[in-house]
Amino acid sequence: xxxxxxxxxxxxxxxxxxxxxxxxxxxxxxxxxxxxxxxxxxxxxxxxxxxxxxxxxxxxxxxxxxxxxxxxxxxxxxxxxxxxxxxxxxxxxxxxxxxxxxxxxxxxxxxxxxxxxxxxxxxxxxxxxxxxxxxxxxxxxxxxxxxxxxxxxxxxxxxxxxxxxxxxxxxxxxxxxxxxxxxxxxxxxxxxxxxxxxxxxxxxxxxxxxxxxxxxxxxxxxxxxxxxxxxxxxxxxxxxxxxxxxxxxxxxxxxxxxxxxxxxxxxxxxxxxxxxxxxxxxxxxxxxxxxxxxxxxxxxxxxxxxxxxxxxxxxxxxxxxxxxxxxxxxxxxxxxxxxxxxxxxxxxxxxxxxxxxxxxxxxxxxxxxxxxxxxxxxxxxxxxxxxxxxxxxxxxxxxxxxxxxxxxxxxxxxxxxxxxxxxxxxxxxxxxxxxxxxxxxxxxxxxxxxxxxxxxxxxxxxxxxxxxxxxxxxxxxxxxxxxxxxxxxxxxxxxxxxxxxxxxxxxxxxxxxxxxxxxxxxxxxxxxxxxxxxxxxxx
Length: 539
Description:
By secondary structure, the protein is mainly alpha-helical. The chain has 25 helices and two strands. It has helices spanning 15-34, 36-39, 47-59, 68-76, 82-91, 115-127, 131-152, 156-172, 176-179, 181-186, 200-211, 218-241, 247-262, 267-294, 298-301, 310-315, 328-331, 348-361, 366-372, 376-392, 394-416, 441-460, 465-480, 483-488, 497-518, and strands at residues 66-67, 104-105. It has a two-stranded antiparallel sheet.
């Protein structure tokens, strides 16, 4: 599978390859902190998570809980840069009221689940209440994951994975997601949606570990097991912050199952695969147990531990231009509270209308409906509504999923790949009334440096084409398993950042493979055991 071979040429990693991977990370980190587009970004979807973090940091509220006054404070300022909102809070630090503002909510109520509020709280605890603290915490996780990856895989080809990863992330800062204020607010660097990009290196680490059939000494096996557990724990965090990362579990299970079947008669290989599965399972269960123990039980009791699923599935029917289908508005009567009722497009108001109708039919007091949005009962209402709509309009629903949703995926990637280096206002969305900024000479220099470093990795280090094929296979599998989230919900430039990253990564890998294929490699570049039969072999 994907060229798995115990006799694969194993070209030792060079200091140059490690150095280029480190430089690639440093360039990305510098670019993040250089761009005002990042520094002054709005966070439109994470207000309650930041409120929960401030509640804990400033007032000592239990982890994951939020004071209502702080939640209102952040909601009222959703349209201003997060850095400005936090600056106002820090300025009032000396004059804090004796009692925290408002009542204490046991959970956040924004439908984001528990994960991101924990990330923000940890960032504020480590680095203070600054917008850049979240970005620094994200970079720290990426650096730890990259270090574990480089420690585990000792070839220049696998080091290129790290170089390509940070190179692709740097390029993404100059796409539509970086310069357009509307999309920048939807997927800010360090934000909820952006955190799905943290799971890329852990995914590569896990899949490449499963594919590695070399027999290891005991010390190496223990080290690799610890690194595998670490990467599994890092992978778990984006899954808790964004449900779209969950299909990567299926990717890991699929690869593990295929390898177990292929080597079903090889007891040693099966034993190794079983140990690796046990390590990943224990790390996952231990990580989840730690989170469950750290936050109020209400997250589980109210169904707010993870992001809602059926709410996205039902709302996604709005990608069909024919939505609302004839008669749908009559199925859900919410006009007494929401005169607009069911409307066209992708709107949370459609879910709220369905919920109000469900609450009325199930005798839920109207004063409780607001506190139950995105909770367990809300998800039940969305699930029942979806199947009711699907039963009445089966062809329209099938067309929505198998035509409109599928066609949005390539459109989202194509639309995201717009560059606007000089701040051209004619190409920008002005929904928030924020001017588009031109990229500085320093930022453009960092972009050029990142591209040069990535190309240099393939030009100046000795790389095995067999290992590149294995990396290409993992890239394809990981990219394919981003698609279920777009099938259940929908693809858009701000929701398909992970697929965009894999596309940029894959393009860079293709260019690098071409460079490796055409340049000559000295015969003594390979260790004796891996010497190709022909002296004319080209890497």
